[in-house]
Structure formats: structure tokens, C-alpha cells
Amino acid sequence: MEKNWFDKSAEEYKSARPQYPKELFSFLSEQTAGHGLAIDCGAGNGQATVPLALYFDKVVGLDVGANLLANATKAEKVSYLLSSASHLPFEANSVDLITSASAAHWFELEKFYDEVGRVLKPGGVLALWTYYYMPKVDPKIDSIVEKLLEVTLAKYMNPRLEWVNSQYENLPFPYAKEKKAFEYSITGDFNRFAAVLESLSFVKTYTEKTGKNPLDEVRDELEKLWGPKEKERKMTWDNHMVIGRKPIP
After folding, report:
1. Is 53 part of any domain?
2. How do residues 81-116 score in pLDDT, each as one tens digit?
3. Residue 82's closest CA among 98, 100, 62?
4. What Å distances lie between residue 37 and 86, 145, 236, CA to CA?
5. Is the separation of the CB atoms in 97 and 118 below 8 Å?
6. Could you tell me the CA-to-CA distances from 122 to 65, 127, 166, 224 in Å, in that order?
7. What is the pLDDT of residues 165-193, one digit of tens each?
8. Cα–Cα distance between 153 and 157 in angstroms, integer?
9. Is 17 within the bounds of a domain?
10. Per-position DSSP letters for the chain, written without gaps between them
């Protein structure tokens, strides 16, 4: 079921979604024996693709969303391809690292893993990570957002998001699996916080089906707790990674 839920709002997605911590990419570099070619599947706007170029000679970001790739961040050693994760246009045994940041749960996993096994070098690394949808801000604010998710939005969540809920613990994986966690924080005002929530796939599904923004149910309450809308607060995400290596014959 590979689909990009965010292609229609590529610019909004790029400005709203969090980045990933620098430590995550240095960790990946330490895990890989070779640093020739890395590919990032479900690259979106290049949030994970570009940082990989600090450690690899060549990085290719792939996505099925043409608008997202058109808005992707450009960088030296980085290129983008309009391509599904089910068909990786690379030679066999040619790739040192394959990543997917908050996208693997949308892939046709069996086909993706077949392609991973074909293009990864023996000993090459596959790393998939995700983060929980709602950033941690403040216990009172977090409680309201959690209730919105559990009561109003739950039935609009795609079943595949259960893999996100499990922190990818239950995501099928083709190799012996290790887990790693990273924390990432930003500061932003209330509008930045709201934009993060409004960029989520199940929020978009709710809006498409009902014609309403679900955040409007709790916006007044959230704004009251937030304080002045221009006040900046810390927003924190936990990133959960599963990582493994293609066996060496």
C-alpha cells in the first residue's frame, strides 16, 4: 500500500514536520563499514536525506510524491528520484545504507524488503525509524491532545499506524533487529505547534471526510493553556529506530 499522504500539501509538510537529531545520523555512520552510497526511501522533503550527505559520498532520496520532491531541500551529494520503495533502481550489492524516516509503515513491506536484500551490500545496514505523532510539550497540553487522538481521531487512523504506536517493535523486519532511541526538541509558538498536529495523516483524513478541522474542538482550551500565542515552548519527540545488517555469506 505505498502512498504519500502529504504530497498535496508539500510546502506545509516541509515547514511543519520536525527534523531529526544530529546524533542519529552520526550513529548510522558508525554502523556502516562503507560510506559510498546511501538511499533514503520515502524521503519526502529530504529531512533525513540531506543530513546523510555529511557522512556518505552519494545520497539518493526516493519518494512517490512528486510535489514533495519538487520542494525537497537541495544539497551537495544529494539527488532525488520519483520512485516507489518497492522498486529500488540500483544495482545488486551496491548500497551501503538504506534508511526510511517515518515512512516505512506505508510501504509494501514484502516487496520493499526483497529490494533491500537485492541492493544492499553484504554487511550493509537497513535502518527504519519513526516518532510518536504528538510532541511532548506540557502535561496539561499533552493530556488534551491525547484525548483528542483517542476520542475524536482514533477511527480515522490507518491500521498501519499501529506500527508507529508500537515504536516499530511490531513492524516486520528482515534481519536480526536492534533498537535505538533518540530524542529531538524544537522551540516554537502556538501556530507552529498547531501546524505540526494539522500535518498528521489522520488529521487530514478527518478533515477530508468531515469538512472540519479536529483541532477546532480543543483550540480555545489549548490556547488558554499555552498562554500568548507568540510564546515559544519546547516540543519534544522520541525517535525509535530498528536497525539490522544484511548477512555476509
Report:
1. yes
2. 999 999 999 999 999 999 999 999 999 999 999 999
3. 62
4. 18, 40, 31
5. no
6. 30, 15, 29, 55
7. 899 999 999 999 999 999 999 899 999 99
8. 7
9. yes
10. ----TTGGGHHHHHHHS----HHHHHHHHHH-S--SEEEEET-TTTTTHHHHTTT-SEEEEEES-HHHHHTSPP-TTEEEEE--TTS--S-TT-EEEEEEES-GGGS-HHHHHHHHHHHEEEEEEEEEEEE-SSPB--HHHHHHHHHIIIIIIGGGS-TTHHHHHTTTTTS--SS--EEEEEEEEEEE-HHHHHHHHHTSHHHHHHHHHHSS-GGGGTHHHHHHHH-STT--EEEEEEEEEEEEEPPP-
Residue appearing with cell numbers 546511501: 38
| Mean pLDDT of all residues in 131-157 | 89
Could you tell me which of 163, 44, 28 has the C-alpha nearest to residue 98? 28
> Looking at the domain assignment, is residue 221 inside a domain?
yes
In a domain, 176, yes or no: yes
Percent of residues, the chain, with pLDDT higher than 70: 93
CATH number of 61's domain: 3.40.50.150
Domain residues for the domain of 99 are 7-245
